[in-house]
Amino acid sequence: MNPNPLLGVFFHWLGGLSSASFYVPYKRIRLWSWEIFWLTGGIFSWVLAPWIGAFIGSKDLINVLANTPVHTLLICYLCGAGWGFGGLTFGLTMRYLGLSLGMAVALGLTTVIGTLGPPIFQGTFGEVVAKYGSEYTFIGIAVVIAGIIIVALAGGAKEKQLANASGDANIPSRGEFDLKKGILIAVFSGVMSSFFSFGLAAGDPIRAATAAAGTGPLWVGLPVLCVVLAGGFTTNFVWCLYLILKNKSAGEWGGKTATVSDTRTPLLANYALAALGGTLWYFQFFFYTMGESQMGKFGFSSWTLHMASIILFSTLWGFALKEWKGTASRTQFLVWLGIGTLIISTVIIGIGNMLAA
Question: How far apart are CA 183 and CA 6, in angstroms?
């Protein structure tokens, strides 16, 4: 089966849509603390869905992983754990820098490092640059960064306008804004978040073994996710466990509420929504591995497409949920400009991959 970059871009867009949509079910969960619904959904995201997907989509999963060198498994696992630290500190970036600057620094770093880092560390960057069509791919990466900055600026303007309209300056206040601390945290978050890309790249021996076992090219990346996401689960589990012990919120799993109230916790609905949100989150990387398998010689560009599609569909969800209602026309023009820029970037990267193919 020859690579099909256009099909790969389509799969990456499906992954971006899944990632942008996973929090929608979480918003409907009632009377559960963040750590409770995050960990519950995370069990589906990082444990159940990856293993179920790999058992269904790949062949001889247990033997493939059992015969994988320990150092390969360890690198994939540790990269997943590092990515977990990046995700957990992203909120602090927004707190100390605000939406526009925080997103631009953290997501910009994640995009650049997660895209260019693996081929540099694997010693294949020179070969990539020399390939026909590579200039389109690198131009596309630059356009993605521009799109991220434009969307971030629009988001910052939106927060300010809505805060002024409500009389609540809930964007970092002068007391919370800390450029030095914020930049340090943003750099840490951006670098660590890119580790997921390194973990996927380190899983090449697992992909090769999976292919040798008879798995088709679209599905060879699924076993890698089992290992990388195990590391992500570890980081998030430890943090959620700390919050559960601190806030004494474990009883919420059984229906206990933090406040005295006649309102009963809708447990069945909460568990179903957490399962749906968690599974949607996993599907971003389910489709990512499928998209990566179709990108041919420039497979490293998958991370750029992934980040661009997440931001694109997250912004569109914001319009669907009326989060941009009440903002100035200039702000809405800015966000649509950012969306258009991200779409153009995926087209440019797709052209580069097609030329290489």
Answer: 37
The letter for the amino acid at 251 is G
- In this predicted structure, the answer to whether residue 174 has a pLDDT above a threshold of 50 is no
Q: Which whole-number Å values give the CA distances from 318 to 42, 152, 154, 165, 324, in the listed order? A: 23, 13, 12, 18, 7
CB contact set of 18 (below 8 Å; sequence gap of 6+):
280, 281, 283, 284, 286, 287
Under 8 Å CB-to-CB from 36, ≥6 apart: which residues? 244, 249, 250, 252, 253
Cα angle 317, 136, 7; round to 5: 55
279, 225, 289, 131: CA torsion to nearest 10: 150
Q: Residue 357: which of 137, 27, 117, 144 has the closest Cα? A: 137
DSSP string, 71-111: HHHHHHHHHHHHHHHHHHHHHHHHHHH-HHHHHHHHHHHHH
- In three-state secondary structure terms, 29 is coil
46: containing domain:
5-356
Q: How far from the centroid of its chain's Cα atoms is residue 42's Cα?
A: 13
pTM reported for the whole predicted model: 0.89
Domain count within the chain: 1
309-349 pLDDT, tens per residue?
Answer: 999 999 888 888 888 888 889 999 999 999 999 999 988 98
Helix axes 302-320, 5-21, angle to 10 degrees: 40
CB 227 within 8 A of CB 73: yes
Please state the rounded mean pLDDT for residues 118-143: 84
CB 182 within 8 A of CB 97: yes
What 3-state class would DSSP assign to 153? helix
C-alpha 105/C-alpha 114 separation (Å) is 14
